[in-house]
Write a structure and sequence with these properties.
With 342 residues, the chain is mostly helical. The chain contains 21 helices and no strands. Among the domains are: 79 residues, Ankyrin repeat-containing domain (Serine Threonine Protein Phosphatase 5, Tetratricopeptide repeat), CATH 1.25.40.20; 100 residues, Serine Threonine Protein Phosphatase 5, Tetratricopeptide repeat (Alpha Horseshoe), CATH 1.25.40.
């Protein structure tokens, strides 16, 4: 502090920039030096100078969580909406990402634009929702954040909150009229991503708010398909109860039963069979059945379930191995015995 004062008294240029464009004010803001920031401002430091990357003192203080410095910079007319140059993010965005609630309040009170989008992850709302900062999500929504805005990947705040099962945030967003059926660039909805990760309560909440249980992603996957592939039997049960189509095939021709059998998810296979999954449907591209897939990997319990349910042990299109043949070829002795006995 004394050295800074001495240099200023000796006519040091308060706004001189380093090779990467950083000023003394930016450095002091990064270090959390309130007294130094005040001294520099009193000596006419330019509050809005940007570094080569577009970082300002306000952005730096907001990122680090220095409330008093943010307040001081705003009082001295810091531009609250200036964007850094690489990702197009603002002080509000970085404060929201880092969970600095008091700084978010200050910035919103100074008319920060709540809907500025970054080049990568969307808005402050999307980021706060995806990280789990419920208090900040509420603040942003109360300040008219666009609840349905999408990132450059097509994801929304609801999508990222559902993916992480942040129930409080999902509820907040739904109460703020989030569109439950918006698709990402890949055609994936919040329901699909919640089902994929086995978030039962989130799936239930989305279904209660009219999530489309039949909708497909661009590669033909449904929420049921995703849940079945990952062995989330309770999610599968819930989706079937809500009229999910158990026999939909994805773009390459696989059903939920096929992928559950392929992965060896015995309990999930049981649920799908109880939901009237068709046993002998053939994969559109491969021409093989769920039984073939289970047999090829040696999933004995699944093979037994499928056979007992009436699976055709010879199912397959012309030119493909039968389930018994693929079990032999793959060295699955237990499966070979089981199928031979049939």
């Amino acid at each position: 502090m004394d050295v800074v004062r001495l240099l200023l008294d000796s006519k040091a240029d308060v706004n001189v920039q380093s090779s990467d464009g950083v000023t003394a004010l930016i450095m002091a803001a990064e270090e959390g030096s309130v007294d130094v920031v005040k001294l520099l401002l009193d000596n006419k430091a330019d509050v809005n100078v940007q570094s080569s990357d577009g970082i300002t003192a306000l952005r730096m203080a907001a990122e680090e969580g220095y409330v008093d410095i943010v307040r001081l910079l705003l009082k001295n007319k810091a531009d609250v909406n200036v964007k850094e140059k690489i990702r197009n993010t603002t002080a509000l965005y970085t404060a929201a990402v880092n969970g600095h609630t008091d700084i978010v309040k200050l910035l919103l009170g100074s008319k920060a634009d709540v809907n500025i989008q970054s080049n990568v992850s969307g808005t402050a709302l999307i980021m706060a929702a995806g990280i789990g900062h419920a208090d900040i999500v509420k603040l942003l929504l109360d300040s008219k954040a666009d609840v349905n805005v999408q990132s450059n990947k097509g994801t929304t705040a609801l999508y990222v909150a559902a993916a992480n099962s942040y129930m409080e945030i999902v509820e907040l967003l739904l109460k703020s009229k989030a569109d439950v059926n918006i698709k990402s660039n890949g055609g994936v909805t919040a329901l699909m991503v919640a089902a994929q990760d086995g978030h039962v309560e989130t799936v239930k909440l989305l279904l209660d708010n009219k999530a489309d249980v039949i909708v497909k992603s661009k590669d033909g996957r449904t929420a049921l398909w995703q849940a079945a592939r990952n062995g989330h039997k309770d999610v599968v049960k819930l989706l079937l109860k809500n009229k999910a189509d158990v026999n939909i095939q994805n773009s390459s021709g696989a059903t939920a039963l096929m992928v559950a059998a392929d992965m060896g998810h015995t309990e999930t296979v049981k649920v799908l069979l109880a939901g009237k999954a068709k046993l002998n449907v053939l994969h559109k591209n491969l021409g093989v059945s769920a039984l073939w897939m289970a047999a090829s990997w040696g999933h004995t319990d699944v093979v037994k379930l499928l056979v007992e349910a009436g699976a055709d042990v010879k199912a397959g299109k012309s030119g493909t191995h039968s389930p018994l043949e693929i079990a032999k070829k793959s060295g699955q002795a237990e499966v070979v015995k089981l199928l031979t006995d049939r």
